[in-house]
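Work Package 4 report. The design task specified in the project plan requires that, given a folded chain encoded as structure tokens, an amino acid be chosen for each position. We show below one input record used in the internal validation round.
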């Protein structure tokens, strides 16, 4: 049995053409292949060939060939198409008017051996194709030209023209409205849709105002591209309306020039006219991290915050560090008492020590929240700082409040314990020993008052005793 199968395959592979041959194959259509596959045959004989009762051999099966347009007689040098679904084929190629046959098959997207058999079962032509020849879901077919199979632009019913056909497109990536000139940026993306790789593409770009005047031009860029490339620009143009223009000129024979040119209208807002009603909070800088941009459990880091209160009725801005499950620092808070005011603050955030190893090393987030707005930065925390878990002594330090000219900023508060945290002088932060203040406890006015109660009562009792003694005398 195996010997017979080997002989059959060998016979298919070595059999020569007898006038009628495969000429073009569309085996892997872009998108779904269902009912969209087809193959082209060609009569290179000097005489006509009647293919009634012939079979199309594929996937180990002999498929019938049924006439739909024309008849079974193929004249000399005549083309014909065998389609998986003739109606779908004609919808995809409405200008096709040659002979058309129907057959039931499903071509492999990776490759297989196909054959034409006459009514006696003799193989008249066979061909083994592979996806490495091209035409694999890129809009191309594979066709025979000068007895060589190559990737070609689909041309059912016509001579195969194997040329440097391609389709490259250009895309402008940008927003529509920019808050100011510093926010204004755009990108030009060039992408290969079909065709061979390593093509020289000339990329042209410019920006015009609404009157058609060129306000920013760029030198033509020639790039040797395989698949795609994206170029970025920051024109830094002032308030106004602008037309972004991009054009590409491929060195290959581009089959669709409509997608070679693109333009987009954008606007840059006047900074002075920005909406002052909108509040915002932003993390601008994180200090005291190592060269690897990581922090350690128990470490004290500083976070620079910019907060702007617009028309919001809320006053409090809060800062903390958390994972998706829990916080790994206390919540620090401060207030902006007046509307339409802005404050820059650098706050110290103490990361909890991990002496009991309950916290996992990994990714955390620094979060600032206020006025209904939020901003965050990713931070990686790992290990404990050296010797932090060996020191359990808690001390109290009195830290003087630095002078500030702002009347809008209330004291920094620890929202978890309601203790007032006074902004610290810059010289207390030691990046070499970031845990230097890990044992400092900031006392609130209420706590201090509570601790003075015994002394106050003692003083009252002493004064009362003295008063009674002097009254008797």
């Amino acid at each position: 049995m195996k010997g017979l199968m080997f002989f059959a395959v060998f016979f298919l592979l070595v059999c020569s053409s007898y006038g009628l041959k495969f000429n073009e194959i569309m085996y892997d259509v872009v998108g779904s292949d269902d009912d969209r596959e087809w193959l082209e045959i060609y009569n290179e004989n000097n005489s006509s060939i009647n293919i009634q009762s012939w079979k199309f051999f594929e996937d180990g099966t002999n498929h019938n060939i049924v006439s739909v347009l024309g008849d079974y007689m193929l004249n000399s040098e005549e083309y014909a198409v065998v389609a998986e679904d003739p109606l779908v084929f004609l919808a995809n190629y409405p200008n096709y008017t040659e002979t058309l046959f129907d057959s039931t098959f499903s071509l492999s997207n990776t490759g297989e051996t196909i054959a034409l058999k006459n009514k006696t079962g003799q193989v008249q032509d066979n061909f083994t194709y592979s996806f490495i020849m091209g035409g694999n879901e890129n809009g191309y077919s594979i066709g025979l030209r000068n007895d060589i199979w190559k990737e070609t632009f689909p041309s059912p019913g016509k001579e195969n023209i194997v040329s440097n056909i391609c389709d490259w497109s250009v895309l402008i990536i940008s927003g529509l409205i920019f808050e100011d000139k510093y926010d204004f940026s755009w990108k030009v993306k060039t992408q290969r849709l079909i065709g061979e790789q390593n093509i020289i593409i000339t990329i042209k770009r410019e920006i015009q105002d609404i009157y058609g005047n060129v306000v920013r031009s760029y030198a033509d860029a020639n790039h040797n591209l395989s698949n795609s490339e994206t170029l970025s620009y920051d024109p830094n143009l002032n308030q106004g309306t602008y037309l972004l223009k991009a054009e590409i000129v491929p060195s290959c024979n581009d089959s669709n020039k409509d997608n070679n040119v693109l333009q987009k209208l954008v606007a840059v807002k006047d900074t002075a006219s920005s909406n002052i009603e909108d509040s915002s909070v932003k993390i601008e800088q994180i200090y005291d991290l190592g060269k690897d941009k990581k922090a350690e459990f128990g470490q004290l880091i500083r976070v620079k915050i910019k907060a702007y209160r617009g028309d919001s009725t809320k006053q409090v801005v809060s800062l903390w560090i958390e994972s998706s499950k829990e916080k790994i620092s206390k919540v620090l808070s401060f207030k902006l008492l007046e509307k339409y005011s802005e404050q820059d603050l650098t706050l110290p955030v103490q990361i909890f020590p991990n002496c009991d190893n309950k916290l996992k090393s990994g990714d955390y987030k620094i979060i600032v929240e206020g006025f209904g707005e939020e901003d965050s930065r990713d931070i990686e925390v790992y290990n404990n700082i050296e010797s932090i878990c060996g020191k359990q002594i808690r001390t109290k330090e009195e830290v003087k409040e630095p002078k500030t000219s702002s009347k809008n900023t209330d004291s920094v508060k620890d929202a978890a314990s309601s203790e007032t945290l006074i902004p610290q002088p810059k010289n207390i932060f030691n990046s070499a020993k970031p845990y230097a203040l890990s044992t400092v406890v900031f006392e609130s006015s209420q706590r201090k008052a509570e601790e003075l109660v015994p002394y106050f009562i003692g003083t009252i009792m002493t004064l009362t005793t003295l008063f009674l003694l002097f009254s008797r005398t």
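The domain at 166-273 is CATH 2.60.40.2550 (Immunoglobulin-like). Validation will be extended to a larger panel in the next phase.
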